[in-house]
């Protein structure tokens, strides 16, 4: 992130008052605290209106009394923090001045050990905008302090300051501040929501939703325009709901993700995208999905609601329960296949397909957990963050996962010998090659996982892996030949 140094008459002895939310931190502590509160007890949601009716200061204070924020892993604005460390080394007086509650602000000040004092909201006063400006004017005197902020509400503070540092603000706000007082430093905003949106929505994960097409593909009906249109609408609806689930999961998992070696780079965990944007995005995604669902059979909507409910339960509770979490992941995959069936009126669910899906996706779910636990083991940790497994479980996870994968191949082998296959394929015996390829791929990903080379998400790994592409291509060729040519 670039820093622009401006000409200024500010002296090193001039007190620098530093805002917290959006300035020193690339996040908002009120939303961070709110997430932690509702994770602790969802029924606190009924107390929020009561506290808010007594004022924003009371709301912040009551929440702060009930949560513990992990201040070490918060997304600090590193370039600005380095500037503050240099200023502290030069013995410039620094003050943490924030609208966040003083209970949390003091913990951050103690952690950073840079500030002479903390001036923050308490149970009675919401120190924001005009009230913050007047408090600093009374404390230091008009034009006797510098102020670092990021929001339009900070204009009411800058009018009493002698110089300004603008952090994470747009060009319009920078221009307003520059017309008001002299600028010491400018740290431009790096938020480009359009560019980061695919990462927020985890669009690369949408590839999982192509499982919806499997029933149509298995029935050899891809050329039916009406059915293809329905399945495409179902695919888009599922993608939107899945992305809403990913946003919820990322917000709920903020603290855990920040302690993870790769998940700490997710948009919300890293502070790249404000949590508020996530709260706004969720109803938009669900609303757009609901519009698409209105054109599809009612049962598809029921399956989609079940999927979203299960996703929500997984994010909040189930992923911490040993074995329940992996079975839940496998079920979420399988629900995509079932959704593909119910989106097509007149189609019946194939129990062969259902059994195959459950065992294969159970295998992949165990790959995911094994990979996370193995990384924790290499870091000499006893347990993976936010999970119920201990490192001693590694061998049993591998055994169950490999068994699930091989059973899926067995189900496929039994299906090849069924009467249904004789009706769909000219040369069904060729499908034994698919069994061989699938056996290879399952064995291959477990070898990769055991070596510690597996990505946190097997789907992401498969999208980047040449061997996986080759296996899928060969399977496709075999299926096409078995369908069209008789020998």
**CATH topology-level fold name of the largest domain:** Rossmann fold
Number of strand elements: 7
What amount of the residues lies in strands?
A: 5-15%
Element order: H for helix, E for strand: EEHHHHEHEHEHEHEHHHHHHHHHHHHH
What's the tally of helices?
A: 21
Unreliably modeled segments: none
The CATH homology group name of the largest domain = HAD superfamily/HAD-like
Shape: elongated
Enumerate the strands of the largest sheet in spatial order, edge to edge or round the barrel: 1-7-6-5-2-3-4
Q: Determine Rg (CA atoms, Å).
A: 28 Å
CATH class of the largest domain: Alpha Beta
Largest sheet: 7 strands, mixed
CATH architecture of the largest domain: 3-Layer(aba) Sandwich
Mean of pLDDT? 91
Number of domains: 3
Helix content: 55-70%
In terms of structural class, how would the helical and strand content be classed? Answer: alpha/beta
Features:
487 residues; alpha/beta; Rossmann fold; 7-stranded mixed β-sheet; elongated
Topology summary:
Blueprint: E1 4-5, E2 16-18, H1 29-40, H2 48-53, H3 56-66, H4 78-89, E3 94-101, H5 102-112, E4 117-121, H6 130-140, E5 146-149, H7 155-158, E6 163-169, H8 171-180, E7 182-188, H9 193-201, H10 214-218, H11 225-252, H12 254-258, H13 275-293, H14 298-316, H15 324-342, H16 351-378, H17 394-416, H18 419-424, H19 432-450, H20 458-464, H21 466-484
Parallel strand pairs: 2-3, 2-5, 3-4, 5-6, 6-7
Antiparallel strand pairs: 1-7
Helix pairs in contact: 1-3, 11-13, 11-14, 14-15, 15-16, 16-17, 16-19, 17-19, 19-21
Short description:
The protein has about 475 residues and is of the alpha/beta class. The protein has helices spanning about 30-40, 50-55, 55-65, 80-90, 100-110, 130-140, 155-160, 170-180, 195-200, 215-220, 225-250, 255-260, 275-295, 300-315, 325-340, 350-380, 395-415, 420-425, 430-450, 460-465, 465-485; strands at about 5, 15-20, 95-100, 115-120, 145-150, 165-170, 180-190. Strands 1-7-6-5-2-3-4 form a seven-stranded mixed beta sheet, sandwiched between helices.
């Amino acid at each position: 992130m670039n820093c622009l140094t401006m000409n200024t008459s500010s002296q090193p002895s001039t007190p620098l008052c530093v805002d917290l939310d959006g300035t020193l931190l690339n996040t908002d502590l009120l939303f961070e605290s709110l997430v932690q509160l509702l994770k602790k007890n969802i029924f606190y949601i009924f107390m929020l209106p009561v506290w808010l009716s007594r004022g924003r200061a009371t709301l912040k204070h009551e929440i702060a009394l009930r949560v513990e924020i992990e201040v070490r892993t918060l997304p600090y604005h590193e370039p600005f923090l380095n500037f503050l460390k240099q200023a502290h080394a030069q013995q410039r007086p620094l003050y943490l001045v924030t609208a966040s509650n003083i209970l949390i602000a003091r913990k951050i000040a103690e952690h950073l050990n840079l500030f002479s004092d903390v001036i923050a909201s308490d149970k009675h006063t919401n120190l924001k905008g005009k009230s913050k400006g007047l408090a600093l004017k009374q404390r230091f005197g008009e034009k006797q302090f510098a102020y670092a902020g990021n929001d339009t509400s900070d204009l009411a503070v800058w009018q009493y300051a002698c110089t300004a540092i603008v952090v994470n603000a747009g060009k319009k706000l920078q221009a307003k501040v520059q017309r008001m007082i002299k600028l010491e430093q400018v740290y431009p905003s790096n938020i480009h929501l359009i560019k980061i949106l695919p990462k927020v929505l985890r669009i690369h994960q949408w590839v999982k939703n192509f499982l919806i097409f499997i029933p149509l593909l298995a029935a050899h009906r891809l050329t039916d325009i009406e059915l293809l249109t329905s399945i495409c609408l179902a695919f888009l609806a599922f993608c939107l709901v899945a992305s809403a689930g990913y946003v919820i999961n990322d917000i709920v998992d903020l603290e855990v993700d920040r302690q993870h070696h790769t998940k700490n780079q997710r948009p919300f965990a890293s502070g790249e995208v404000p949590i508020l944007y996530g709260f706004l995005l969720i109803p938009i995604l669900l609303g757009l999905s609901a519009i698409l669902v209105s054109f599809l059979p009612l049962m598809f909507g029921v399956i989609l609601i079940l999927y979203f409910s299960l996703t929500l339960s997984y994010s909040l509770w189930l992923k911490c329960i040993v074995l329940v979490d992996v079975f839940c992941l496998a079920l979420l995959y399988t629900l995509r296949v079932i959704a593909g069936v119910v989106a097509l009126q007149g189609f019946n669910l194939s129990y062969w397909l259902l059994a195959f899906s459950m065992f294969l996706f159970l295998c992949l779910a165990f790959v995911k957990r094994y990979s996370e636990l193995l990384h924790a083991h290499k870091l000499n940790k006893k347990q993976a963050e936010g999970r119920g497994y201990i490192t001693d479980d590694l061998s049993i996870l591998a055994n169950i996962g490999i068994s699930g994968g091989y059973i899926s191949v067995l189900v496929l082998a039994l299906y090849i010998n069924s009467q249904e296959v004789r009706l769909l394929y000219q040369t069904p015996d060729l499908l034994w090659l698919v069994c061989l390829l699938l056996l290879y791929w399952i064995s291959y990903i477990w070898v990769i996982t055991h070596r510690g080379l597996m990505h946190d998400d097997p789907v992401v790994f498969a999208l980047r892996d040449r061997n996986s592409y080759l296996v899928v291509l060969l399977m496709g060729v075999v299926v096409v030949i078995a369908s069209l040519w008789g020998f």
